[in-house]
Amino acid sequence: MRETVTFSRDGAIATVLIDNPPVNAASAAVRTGLAAALDRLDSDDSLQALIIRCAGRTFIAGADIKEFDGPQTEPQLPELIARIEASAKPVIAELHGTILGGGLELALGCHARIAAHDAQFGFPEVRLGIIPGAGGTVRTPRLAGLPLTISLAVEGKQVGSEEALAAGLIDRITDGALETATAEFARAIVAKGEPPRRTRDLPSPVADNELLDAAEQTARRRQRGQDAPLIALQAIRFGLAHDVDAALAEEHRLCRQAIASPQSSALRHLFLAERAVARTPGINPATPVRPINQVAVIGLGTMGRGIVTTLAAAGLKVIAIARSDESLTKARTAIDKAWAQSVTRGQIDEPARIDRADRVSWSTDLSAVAGADLVIESVGEVREIKEALFAALGSIAKPGAILATNTSYLDIDALAAASGRPADTCGMHFFNPADVMKLVECVRGKATAPDVVASVMALSKRLGKIAVVSGVCDGFIVNRMLAKRSREAYFLLEEGASPWAIDRVLVDFGFPMGPFALGDLAGIDLQHTVRQARADRLTPREKRADFVDQLFAAGRLGRRSGAGWYAYGEDGKAKPDPMTEALIAAHATKHAIKRVEITDEEIRDRLIFAMVNEGARLIDEGIVSRAQEIDVAMVNGIGFPRHLGGPLWWAQEMGLTGVADKIARFRDEQGDTYWPTSPTLGKGQFY
Ligand code: 3H9
């Protein structure tokens, strides 16, 4: 069995090697091994320096997240780092991969830091609802100043070696063999007899209150609802005003307090859930993956274009196919413009733009798919058109090519049957804008082969996306759950709520925007078309709540047309519109609905519990295998507030008995059709 920590020596230079895959997290075994190495360094007079090195793909990527909820075993990270810093003999950190969280803190406690040219540094703690708790907010300002400390510890950004070196966070970068460079460095300082340089002995920068106040305002705006960035700032401010020992103690106290918070539990749950969804029943590491180098995208509307740019950015060859020269030119012009804008904004450089453009070939001829390993269909949501297309793909695509549809709600099994290649067919459902949104729903049809699912999941990861596997149903995970929220929103309008009140409640809850502002952004015309296409699936009451159709008929097409639910003035800002209120009032009068006052709590519960109930039903029906799929999909697909952990995590935190009681009340009031009973919810536990 491999040792987690091994000690070796080369003359006067000792090396401690950490080998704790996959990311060398600073687990109890790693900490114990490091403490033992320090003992040997202390007790052996012939040793004069120690190198800390990690095996595998990275230096320590942080404390071990899986140990957070258990008892704290000794030695704890802050004490271990204090021991390293206090060592009378120099300790050198050899840095490669992602030096994150407690790993970076440990490096800052060392007396020198030598890094590979492509190393990355950061404090991702805020993404876990905590703050650096082993000196990050105390040592970083002393080494690298306040702006970088804020960027890393408050905003959770990462920097590369060059930036880290320029700021003083590390001492040297090597392009050559890292081990050789560190060994040479160690020998040189031993030869010179240089004493250890301790970060704690450096002067603290002055507290720049203007900078700190601005950072606080930014955090309140950009990381809205999240406590950790503000706590990180609190630790930084304290550190600037106190001596090192007091600052370290306060930082650790704040970190432990944050670990115990519901926000941190929710964020850590999501971190693990986002990785757990990669392991889905029937798919395992031994499942073969089909090679995908060339992808054809058919249909170059908004979604198709986003998919093309995402694929090209990830280095794939793309065949972009439109139905006419006109749509092809339109799409090509739009994509070229978007790439040029990315250059202007400094997001990519000119060679990268040329590279991406070179990877895409354009065609109006469907037979161009013949060379593709994967075909992603993204044409309009018309069943007959898609079925005809899949029938054609069945005869044109090369044997073994994967046939994927980006449909939002059509029956994938029917498309699979039409293709004549059901085992090769699946869904790859992207979210708008496809180049930004992290989620891809990988939809497994009745006959989809396991290696097809494994291949599209692997591809999604390559695209920087999170793939969640869903079975076939109307709307899959996100749109199916969202449809229940929209339904309740329309019913609440009939019953007495205003669009603005509903949007406000959801924004207060933590969503980036409410359903009506979102509707205006997506376009009322689009929603009207979807409503028409789905008319046969609507209940009489849903048909009656035809506000979208009324807005469409009035030419209120949303933000683009200057009015939708809201009115948009010259400044483009959404303003509640009395015309919409009049439309809703007239609707109520026409249908003899008595509108009443509706509380914020009722709005929140109706909208969120409708999603919770539907999420539970997705588990009941086996559309997803676990609650994790739901939470990951809703956070990454529609911006369910990350710090609440996803709808099912949040419901469990609220107390599922209470949630189930409320749902039962809604069932009594609104009927079984809308609030069907879920056995999974009845079990009283999602996790
Ligand atoms: C901290 O340090 C607190 C201190 O300030 C204070 C203490 C007092 N622990 O992401 P991947 C697992 S907080 C345990 O797919 P990649 C992960 O679950 C920590 N496990 O790989 C997965 O396991 P599985 C601050 C961890 O190559 C596997 O590694 N540090 C940890 O795409 C592969 O992960 C962070 O927040 C961990 N810390 O990305 C770093 N990290 O295969 C969080 C990962 O069983 N980690 N695992 O599902 C990351 O950002 C990415 O994992 C990393 C690699 C960039 C390192």
UniProtKB/TrEMBL annotation:
Catalyses: a (3S)-3-hydroxyacyl-CoA + NAD(+) = a 3-oxoacyl-CoA + NADH + H(+)
**Where is the 3-hydroxyacyl-CoA dehydrogenase C-terminal domain positioned along the sequence?**
475-568, 605-679
Top-level taxon in the UniProt lineage: Bacteria
Pfam families from the UniProt entry:
3HCDH, 3HCDH_N, ECH_1
What's a single GO MF annotation on this record?
A: isomerase activity
Q: Where in the cell is it found?
A: Peroxisome
3-hydroxyacyl-CoA dehydrogenase NAD binding domain: from which residue to which, for each copy? 294-470
Q: Does the keyword Glycosyltransferase apply?
A: no
Question: Its GO biological process terms?
Answer: fatty acid beta-oxidation
Q: Which family does it belong to?
A: In the N-terminal section; belongs to the enoyl-CoA hydratase/isomerase family.
Q: This chain belongs to which protein, by name? A: 3-hydroxyacyl-CoA dehydrogenase
Provide the taxonomic classification.
Bacteria, Pseudomonadati, Pseudomonadota, Alphaproteobacteria, Sphingomonadales
